Amino acid sequence: MSENKQHISESQKKLALYAKVLGHPVRVYIIELLKRQTCCYSGDLAQELPIAKSTLSQHLKELKKAGLIQGEIKPPRIKYCLNIEKWEEARALLGDFLNT
Amino acid sequence: MSENKQHISESQKKLALYAKVLGHPVRVYIIELLKRQTCCYSGDLAQELPIAKSTLSQHLKELKKAGLIQGEIKPPRIKYCLNIEKWEEARALLGDFLNT
DNA sequence: AATTCAGTTCGTAAAATTACGAACAATTAT
DNA sequence: ATAATTGTTCGTAATTTTACGAACTGAATT
Questions:
Q1: HSE (CB half, 13 Å, CA atoms) of A17?
Q2: What secondary structure letter does DSSP report for A1?
Q3: Does a structural domain hold residue A57?
């Protein structure tokens, strides 16, 4: 009667976290932009996207929290770039998930 | 003053939906299982996973809604399988996103 | 010093997600 | 017919997500 519940692996949790942060169209859009041009300003995004700047800021925060992007202060603006290391990790995890 | 907001593409929305449904460890676990053995019963999952069967059923419903799995009634059980067509679509979309 | 600009944080609200147990439905076994 | 098995649906609750406008911060300009 040993309740032998198999648990979910750490890499599955990590994968789910990356997938989750990519689970919103605005965040997909931002990442696709940064893949093309490596960096951008929040204002550029605000012009292109039909959302309030505070909402955009929240999405950027989510991406930062997940580690996928990083911001560099270039007064009076903030330059956002992909965090290559983390992006590669996400790529590896998701790629492996998809292809094996 | 033409409010020329660029909108998010349909494929970005689709990608986000697939990513979203993969954004939970339990659902990642289920998909990984189905990739290995193509089919399984809900009861098998219930034994392995530390969640209520009703919660599991909800996750299966999410995966069905996204099209990634399909259920076949094999009384008194239900056999779940990957929906190959949809899985390939998700693979293609996500793979392209990751690798270009 | 006051204004402007870019962007974040705060306060708030609505909706979606996650989770559980209880009740239910359908089939099988007794 | 009754009971057991498998899994879903229902009702509910707590948490998270998404979104907005207003207020704020820090730097640059006037």
A1: 17
A2: -
A3: yes
Angle, alpha carbons B10-B14-B15 (nearest 5°): 115
CA distance B50 to chain A (A): 6
H/E stretch holding A7 reads: none
Please check whether strand C approaches the CB of B61 to within 7 Å: no
Q: Report the amino acid identity of residue A1.
A: M
pTM here is 0.93
Structure tokens at B20: 């979203």
B56-85 per-position pLDDT tens digit: 999 999 999 999 999 998 877 899 999 999
Return the CATH number at B40. Answer: 1.10.10.10
Domain membership of residue A17 (yes or no) is: yes
B1 within domain boundaries: no
Domain that holds residue B48: 10-98
Torsion, Cα B31 B34 B35 B37, to 10 degrees, reads 160
Rg (C-alpha) for chain A, rounded Å, is 16
B86 residue type, one letter: K
CB contact under 8 A, A7 and B50: yes
| Residue B5 confidence (pLDDT) | 56
**What's the structural domain count of chain A?**
1
The whole-number pLDDT of residue B73 equals 87
